[in-house]
Every structure is written in structure tokens, then in C-alpha cells.
Amino acid sequence: MEERYTRTYAEKLDAEDTLRSFRNEFYLKNEYVYMDGNSLGLMSKRAEQSVYDLLASWKKHAIDGWTQGENAWYYLSESLGEKMAVLVGAEKEEVVVTGSTTVNLHQLVSTFYKPKGSKTKILADTLNFPSDIYALKAQLKLKGYDDSHLIQVQSEDGHTLDEETIIDAMTEEIALIVLPSVLYRSGQILDMEKLTIAAHERGIKIGFDLCHSIGAVPHQLHDWDVDFAFWCTYKHLNGGPGSVAALYVNEKHFGTAPGLAGWFSSDKEKQFEMEHTLAAAEDAGAFQIGTPHVLSAAPLIGALELFDEAGIEKIREKSLQLTAYMMELIEHELKEFDFDICNPINEKQRGGHIYLEHPEAARICKALKKRKVIPDFRKPSGIRLAPVALYNSFTDVYECIQILKNIMEEKAYEQFSNEREVVS
């Protein structure tokens, strides 16, 4: 056996890993190989502590916790946005932690979708996460349009999108564009800068869903002149189930009235004047709607510290090394078992996870879980494996593929039904 395909080699890579100490910051599932961080990241000890700290501030300060304590609640959405801005390449005033992914999409579309004349359509794609499409159709309906005004770019191979095809679809009828930064199935990274330039040349505003890229892939939203973006915080950011989402609005749009206004859209200095005419904040804070979900935002205080210390560029470097190593092992160990690698191979287009297809995918995922490997199944035949740079090791990757090989050799998957579980 070649050295590269041994556990010893994986352990050698771990010994050389400059981020290996961050693994100790997380609560790893005992004896499990966790490969599902692109659905729900693991809890870090610092995220846990920051929740306790927020509870303590409530206990100690009661209502004065809004303005007192280390993380005063009144300013928490903005302060967390400032900490997160470096991960998306934004100015600190351009990001605010608020709402959920879909609520933020509704807010941003209601703000920037301004149909006029023949320019009435929204451009999206057929590979996007369903929630985004539901929201876009709902926004069209609110404006009096039917689903025919949602144009969805098709995929030639069912896994990836071609940027030139997207650009060709930017016709004179398009009023707004909403696309994923990373496709949730295949992990393809779209060229956001190229698409933004093309959209702006045609007078179209463009925004991106960063749910599957934030915390795994660096961005330069401000420099790319992206109009808006939105994302969740419970995947690669490890903010916990239901942790508060975030949004970005380019500073050139500051002063634009929020489509969905609320009390926390207000300028902080004027909010308690209690006027019935909104004096909106002059930054991304204007696009908040309701009171901050303080306890659901609390884990992010600790979680983001780890990203600040590790650095997103180093995280991306290790992520690419992990996924490259996983693909190499798949090609070597699983070549006789009919797996197709359907994620992009080249580094520029590859996100933070591997996407395999196999006719027995649902059964294989159940067999992996039985043997303490946690994958992610995507109907009808997809297996997502996400080795996360902050807490997964090269040995994890080695063990994952060895266990998968054993399952295939023994046909251990045959004891399970080939149907998805309720949550997968």
C-alpha cells in the first residue's frame, strides 16, 4: 500500500496542521467522525460560555442589560455584524446580525425589487435552496405578479451552473438577481465578482445567499460592489441551531428605506423618541425589523472569536487540503463502487464539502451513521461530506473513507431502506 493511503500519512498531515489546536475548542461527538458541519456546526466551548455569560447579564442587570455589561443587548446586532464583516469582506457598518435567512431575504427583496415598465422579473436558478425560491415567488405575488416572472437559469449537468449562461439570462426584463454563492448540493462556488460586474453593466441589482460559504470561503463583497447578501450562522459559523442570521447591504445603498420597517430599523439615537415616522439608521442596521433575539445571538459572541484567531484565509487553505485529500482517497479506495464525485474538482470553484452520488445513497448514509460517521443525505442520490477546517482532522477524513469502503465491501447498506429520514 502506498504511504499516502495509510492512517500514518493522515496523522503526519495532522501533525503539520497549523490549525490543529482549534479542534480542542469544540465538543466532538465521542468516537464519531462528524462530517455534517455544512448543515449544523459543532458546539464550541466558547459559544457555550458566551451563552452562560449572556444569561448572567440578564440575571445581574435585568432591563439595564440593554445598555450595560460587556455585550450590551441594544448594540449586540451591530457589534456582532462588525465582528462578522471580515469574513465577507465588508465594511463594519455594512453587516448586521438579525432575523433568519428567509426573513432577511424577504427584507432585501422587498427593499431592492422595484419593478418598472417591462423590467419586472427576478433572476434566480434551478439549483438554489427551496426556501429562497419560495420567498422570491411570495415577493412576486405581493407585487401582483405570478411565477412566470421568476426566471430560473437551468443547469446543463444537474450539479453546476455556468456563469456565462447566467449572464446571458440578464435581459432587459430582469429587475433583480438573487443567486447562491455556493450551491448547497454540489458545493460549486459562483464567480460573484464576475456576475456582479455583468449585472451592474445592465443596470440590475444583485444579491447572494452565503449560507454555504460563510465561514468556509473568503469573500470581498464590498470590493466586488455586491448590492446585498444574507446568510445563516449555524453551519460553518457554528452558532447553534436557530442562531440569528445576518445580512450585508453595500454602503452605497445606505439611506434606502427598508422594505419591511420595524422599531429596530431606527437610528439608535432616535429610537426612543417613539415617533410614528421612522428615522431609519444610516447603515445596515436599518434593515433590522424586530427586537434582537439576544439569547439566540449569544453563541456567536464566542464562536466568532475562533474565526478571528484562526483567520479565514488559513481556514480556507486547510479546507481545500481536506477536501482534496478526501477526493484522492475516494478515487483510490472507492473506484469499484460506482460513486460519482459531482462537486467541482478545481480549487477556485470548490466550496467546503464533497458531494457524491450513488444509487444507494440513502441506505449508505444510514449505514455510515450506524458506524459512527455523520454524513448528510440529499434526495434523490446525494451524499454530502464536509470536513470542517476548525475541528476535523485529516485522520477523520481517512477514517470516513475507510469506513465507507468497508460498508461497500460488506454491502452493509442493504439492511436499510433506501429512503431519507425526516432530517438528513
From TrEMBL:
As its record notes, the protein acts as a catalyst of: 3-hydroxy-L-kynurenine + H2O = 3-hydroxyanthranilate + L-alanine + H(+); L-kynurenine + H2O = anthranilate + L-alanine + H(+)
Any one GO MF annotation of this record: kynureninase activity
Q: Which InterPro entries match?
A: Kynureninase, PyrdxlP-dep_Trfase, PyrdxlP-dep_Trfase_major, PyrdxlP-dep_Trfase_small
Query: Which cofactors go with this protein?
Result: pyridoxal 5'-phosphate
Q: Return the NCBIfam families for the record.
A: kynureninase (TIGR01814)
**What family is reported?**
Belongs to the kynureninase family.
Q: What is this protein called?
A: Kynureninase
Cite the source lineage. Bacteria, Bacillati, Bacillota, Bacilli, Bacillales
What gene is it encoded by? kynU
